[in-house]
Amino acid sequence: MTGIVLRPAGVADLATLAHWDRQPHVIAALGDDAGIDWADELTRESDAQQTLVAEIAGRPIGLVQIIDPAREETHYWGAVEPDLCAVDIWIGEAADLGRGHGTAMMTEALRRCFDDPRVSAVVIDPLTRNTAAHRFYARLGFVPVGRRTFGTDDCLVHRLERATWEARTPPA
């Protein structure tokens, strides 16, 4: 693996997040979700959402959000079953793409999700046009479950069941 550490994001990360938001590959992946008010996002306390910075040797390389989609305050996912996690990840700099960091970040995020015995599955919502993301998630065991529009974004929702995760992941 790549030595990824996930730590809570804080206001000290605002400049880095603003910089990453301006990167073409991030803009392309986020669709209409671009333009997050990070100052608000990072100062709002919620037990339904974790915003984490991924680091390698203390250098921030990306962001992970782990959300309880049934309980988070924006109701982005609408009416969903309980006991799910929704995950978003992105890598900030193009130079860090294609180096295994996304796999390491997502593996750690999934481990955190499934460490909670109540979590039955993890869902993600890459843009339908983001076929590279679809291949990435399939390698991790996610299965497409259907198209869905979030705001104006056409997404292909994928789902990873606990049983699939446990079958692929040796016990710690």
Instruction: Provide mean pLDDT, rounded.
Output: 86
Structural class: alpha+beta
> Element order, helices and strands?
EHHHEEEHEHEEH
- CATH class, named Alpha Beta
CATH superfamily: Gcn5-related N-acetyltransferase (GNAT)
Domain module tally: 1
**What percent of residues are in strands?**
25-35%
Note the total helix count: 6
Architecture blueprint of SSEs:
Elements lengths: L3 E5 L5 H8 L2 H7 L7 H6 L5 E8 L2 E9 L16 E8 L9 H14 L6 E4 L6 H9 L3 E8 L2 E9 H7 L4
Parallel strand pairs: 4-5
Antiparallel strand pairs: 1-2, 2-3, 3-4, 5-7, 6-7
Question: How would you sum up this structure, described in words?
Answer:
There is one protein chain. This protein is an alpha+beta fold. The chain has a single domain (4-168), classed as Gcn5-related N-acetyltransferase (GNAT) (Aminopeptidase, 3-Layer(aba) Sandwich). Helix content is 30%, strand content 30%. It contains six helices and seven strands. The protein has a seven-stranded mixed β-sheet with strand order 1-2-3-4-5-7-6, sandwiched between helices. The longest helix has 14 residues, at 101-114. The protein is globular, with a radius of gyration of 15 Å. The two termini are 15 Å apart.
